[in-house]
Design goal:
CATH superfamily of the largest domain: FAD/NAD(P)-binding domain
Strand content: 15-25%
Radius of gyration: 24 Å
Distance between the termini: 66 Å
Number of domains: 3
Number of strands: 21
Number of helices: 12
Helix content: 25-40%
CATH architecture of the largest domain: 3-Layer(bba) Sandwich
CATH class of the largest domain: Alpha Beta
Shape: globular
Largest sheet: 7 strands, mixed
Structural class: alpha/beta
Amino acid sequence: MAGPQRDVDLFVLGGGSGGVRAARIAAGHGARVAIAEERRWGGTCVIRGCVPKKLLVYASAAGAQLADARGMGWEFGPARHDWSTLIAAKDREIARLSDLYLANLRQAGVAIHDGHARLVDAHTVEVAGRRVTAATILVATGGVPRRPAVAGHELMITSDEAFHLPAMPQRIAIVGGGYIGVEFAHIFAGLGAQVTLIHRGDRVLPGFDGDLRAAVGDGLVGAGIEVIAGDEPRAIERTATGLALVLGGTTVTADAVMAATGRAPNSAGVGLAEVGVVLDGRGAITVDEWSRSSVPHIHAVGDVTGRLALTPVAIREGHAFADSVFGGRPTPVPHDLVPTAVFAQPAAAAVGLSEQTARGRGLDVTIFATRFRPMRHVLTGRADRTLVKLVVETGTRRVLGLHMVGDDAPEIVQAAAIAITMGATKDDFDRTFAVHPTVAEELVLLR
């Protein structure tokens, strides 16, 4: 017996990368699809994440490139940077991309709803006072930045606000040594700010390979960034000279204090628990390999699931969900061998197992690694060094992990990730001819 007729086959909560991909693919499979977004179309990555961050990385790196050019014989007068010009240019590009996301949804035939969406019951979504029933619901509401729970935390900005500051702070303290903290420390330092980075661990980038973490730490110090390790905020106070960030061992005075202590799943106020969707202790939606929640017709993808908070992962999960539910092609999403990059300066990138993780799993591994000064810096005089490291299973010779720090590391690791995903061995790398002179040739020259 057929079930009740619903207004749509699929309702998607969240207009970010994962939700938009799912909506478009499902519509392409013939489903009647609706989607809701309460802020701007494009989600974290496009509006307040990867894309504007990378644009600011390019801008901040330009200053060092000007200095490099002098080492190569170029002569020009003193340069200055205008923050408002950069932010205006960034805003124009983000607006273009947001409009493109919306246009693509409309072209796919997806019904658009602007406003906060919440579940009234297990099959009904309410947006801006209107109720829509759906056979299947996909939650793709992303994540929200967290602030440390200390006195004065409301005085802190997060990465969301950092993209819209009316002026660049001349002194900034950044709390957190993960992706966001490291990247923004370099952004502000490259644009001329005095930067202090505070993190509670002994090294930045927890979870990455130890040698990569050490190399990125060296890069922070080389960029003139003050790094305070093993400490965390106790309070933030407003003073006559700025903001005072009180730590366990010292106090840092700054014009702005930025919280870069991670993001939490954006699951509050959606009505999930009320309809029986199980959330974990962080508020993330618990899902299986098919992105199904504890309520079989309610699925979730992206950062709200607490799996890997990476845009390409959300996109893959959204596409796989649509193919599985509406395309007749059951497609689970494995979450191993996911390449990732940290746009420090120089950048870091990795795919596969770190040395520490491999050994922790009891694997017998051989490490092939090198650190060297890139050829370009023979002329520039910069002290940057490149790290290339392969983690290889000793018996099978299979490459389990690649870790790099240096110019173009993300581009190189992306290409190499194809071979590693295919199961390439160290012998496969060794018999590949080098492109000389390049940094990437070290991949096939390590002995």
